[in-house]
Amino acid sequence: MTDGLAESTSGARADGTSDAPAIACSDLSKRYGDESVLESVSFEVPDGEFVALIGRSGSGKSTLLDVISGIEQPDDGRVTFPAADGDATVGHVFQDPRLLPWETCLQNVEYVHGDDPDYDDDVGRRYLDLVGLGDQYDQYPTQLSGGQRQRVGLARALSVDPDVLLMDEPFSNVDEITADELREDLLDLWRDFEPTVVFVTHDVTEAVRMADRILMLGDGDLFGDVDVPLDRPRSIDSVEFVRFREQVREQFREQG
Q1: 157 and 188 share a domain?
Q2: 198 and 210 in one domain?
Q3: Which ranges of the chain would DSSP assign to H, the alpha helix?
């Protein structure tokens, strides 16, 4: 569990559902020695939204995800999870899936559950089934392709039933055909499970294809926040898609 650093600010609609954001980042700053990586970054993500975070290499994207997840602590500011009353379950998918090579696929999913008495092998099998690895429970990471290893990482993150799913350039280390399949699978899983997603990428096409909203980060500063006004499913070759993608690229070139 990832615990918010302050009291809940959650509210409720008339139908009893929360109108509070899933993630609230307030004036986040992070420094390593004399180097400032994040500087007063503030934004909110509504519950269930798919947000893409784009930026050049070294702009602080991965650090921001690590601060949201609690892997790193901010030097200033705070992260809260109001929609979860301050206590959100966070799943994290890394660029490198970070699998234990001496453990099977199923054991790698089990690993994040520790001694949880409510977890059993059927849970792990269910999520491996969902990501297309139903016949490879007992395979080891060295026996898998890059795309299959990333699927194990996704199954592991989903198996904690996350309120928030953080994804750090998850498809950048696989070939484009596999990446395309994984993008479609991820969108299907997002529609089924409805987690709030923050998806880091340096690829504007990928951001426009996947996200409801795009945040732009440059040198540790959030300089752009745009909604994606395109219906799903999206064709990357459509006139509307290409036009909007170029608008995003232009804003990024001008300000990033």
Answers
A1: no
A2: yes
A3: 61-69, 105-111, 121-130, 146-158, 176-193, 204-210, 239-255
